[in-house]
Structure formats: C-alpha cells, structure tokens
Specification:
343 residues, five-stranded mixed beta sheet, D-Maltodextrin-Binding Protein, domain 2, 13 helices, alpha/beta, 11 strands, 47% helix, six-stranded mixed beta sheet
C-alpha cells in the first residue's frame, strides 16, 4: 500500500527526489544487514574454535578406523588450539555415526572422516538411510585410500586363495567367514560369487572379537581392514591371502590381488572423506580443511599411513563430491554382483 501511495504521489508530480532518497535508504539498510551477516560469520570463523571439537568415529575403540581417527585428532588439536575429542559410536556399519553428524548443528564442532565408501553404499544397503550423502553433508576433502584383506589363521594349512576355494567347496556350503563392516561383507560376497563357493557370514561388533573364532577354527576366513591385517601378520596370528584392490599395496607388496590369486573381477578400493553437517559456514569449513590438509600433507602422516596399509588421498571439496558420485555407481554394481540385501 505504501508503494501504491508513492506511485500516486509521483504520478501527481510529487517530489521524486524524496522517493529516490527513501529507496536509497532501503538499499543502504539492506546492504548494511548483509554486511553485518558477513562480518558476523567472519568473526565466528576467526575465533573458531572456542571449545572442544568432536570427531565422530563409527566403529569401536581400538579398531583400524579408531587408530586413524585418533592420529588425526591429536595432530589437528595442536593446530586448532582446542581439544579434538574422538567419540566412538559403533553400530549398524557406521550408520549411527552418520546420523549423528548429519543431525548435528552446522557449526564445525562435529566432524567425521568415516564417509567416502561408507556413504557410497548407503542408498543400496539401507531401505531408510540415516542420511543423504549428497544433501546432508558439506565436504572438506578426502583422507586416504586403502584395501581390505582376506585372511586366515596363521596355523591354517590354507596358503592361497585357490586352496581356500577348494576348502570351501569341500565343506559343501557349511563354511563360515567373519566381518564387522559392510565393506568386508561386500568383498566376501563378491569373492563367493566370482569363485563359485558358499560360506555363511558371521557378523561381529568389532573385528577383534573374531580373532578367537578364527584361531579356534570356528570360522574359515576373515575380511579385515589394513591395520588389523598388518598387525595380525606382524604378530604371527594371521596370514593374508589377497587384497580387495586391483593393485598391490605398498605396505604389503607380497600379498597378491584377487585377480592375481585367480579370482578376477574384484577391485574394491576403500576411501575416506572429511565432512560436516550441511550448512556449515564456508570460512569454518575452509579453516578445518586447512588444518587437516596440513596434517595429511606431512611426511609423518605418509609414513604412518603406509605402516597401516593406506595411502594419503588429498582432494578439494568439489573433487570429493565428484568422486563420491562416481563411487555410488560403483557400489550399485558391487551390490548387484554380491547380491547384498537391504536392511
């Protein structure tokens, strides 16, 4: 109604300069409000963090993921000047932690690096996913790439994939394998399909819980992450027969790929993303990314990752999102081949 009155006034020959002044004032006030918002965001970024940061790990303490989380947390803490606390939220293949980060306040104080591959299979393994990986998160970058290992007990007479395949065929479908992750399940089921064998899955809350069953012969083989595989080999507790990736791993150059071991068509590479809840202010995301990139770019980190069978993997937020989109399509095929059910 005020605008109509202004137009009538102008039409009647009123003071156009007065109206222009009024309009300029509106533009000025709008501009000041926007500038105030930017200044406010900038101040929050400059003073970030003002208290501890939570680093959410979707797997149990002491596991391979936990080892990496705590390594990164300790080093980012030194750069941030505030405590970086690792919170373990195991369960549902990392699903609980995913929901926790997605539903957190978008302020940069709740972060995780347990996505990547874990996000790529969400649409296919869960009827009601805890989050939409392309809508519910802002990405800071990537962390690492690694392989999963197929292992048997060191005391086992089985020394190759071909011998394991023959062993499982002789058990006529009564073989058992252990895993604690969706990645391990996918690897095992793809092996079963490609090799034409049967083995029933035994799921453990933590892969450490499976060692006793492997040693006693209750299960025939395990699918484990690099830290556990390498640690198990070094301690003389287990023997690795193959890796899930299409190339050998630098930390274990003597362990063949599945194709080299006689089972072609398997190339499952695991990677991690760094992410926060969608809507986190850009300056805060940039600050977090800067700290993590500094840690990940160091020679110390390269050496540490190599010891646990991983390679440093650095990318921009935009590259991370594009890599995720591509890997979602990869997992569509993995799930189809392995006939993994939705839960």
């Amino acid at each position: 109604m005020g605008e109509d009155r202004d137009e009538a006034w102008i039409g009647a020959g009123g003071d156009r300069a007065c109206v222009a002044h009024r309009m300029d004032r509106r533009v000025l006030l709008s501009g000041l409000a926007a500038a105030g918002a930017l200044v406010s965001t900038g101040l929050r970024a400059e003073t970030f963090p003002t208290h501890e940061i939570k680093f959410i790990c979707g797997f149990a303490a002491g596991g391979g993921a936990d080892i990496v989380f705590r390594y990164l947390a300790q080093r980012v803490e030194k750069l941030a000047g505030k405590p970086v606390i690792v919170e373990n939220k195991p369960g549902a293949g990392g699903h609980i932690a995913t929901a926790m980060v997605a539903n957190s306040k978008p302020n940069g104080y709740t972060i995780s690096s347990g996505g990547g591959t874990g996000f790529a299979y969400l649409p296919f393994l869960y009827k009601t996913p805890a989050a939409d990986p392309l809508k519910d998160f802002d990405y800071l970058g990537t962390v690492l790439k690694q392989s999963w290992y197929l292992v048997v007990d060191e005391k086992s007479p089985i020394r190759s994939i071909s011998e394991l395949t023959q062993h499982l065929k002789e058990k006529n479908g009564k073989g058992l394998y252990g895993t604690s992750t969706n990645i391990g399940t996918a690897f095992a089921e793809m092996y079963k399909v490609k090799a034409g064998v049967e083995a029933e899955q035994v799921t453990y809350k933590s892969i450490a819980d499976a060692f006793g069953d492997l040693s006693s012969g209750k299960i025939d083989f395990l699918m484990v992450d690099p830290p556990f595989a390498i640690g198990g080999m070094q301690s003389g507790r287990m023997r690795a027969l193959a890796v899930s990736t299409g190339r050998r791993i630098a930390a274990t150059p003597d362990i063949p790929t599945m194709e080299e071991a006689g089972v072609p068509g398997i190339d499952l590479t695991v990677w991690w993303s760094l992410h926060v809840a969608a809507g986190t202010p850009l300056p805060i995301r940039e600050q977090l990314a800067k700290w993590f990139n500094e840690v990940l770019s160091s020679e110390e980190t390269r050496v540490f990752f190599a010891k646990i069978g991983s390679d440093v993997f650095l990318s921009t937020p935009e590259e991370t999102r594009a890599y995720l989109v591509k890997d979602i399509e990869n997992w569509r095929e993995y799930v189809r081949v392995a006939k993994l059910p939705q839960t």
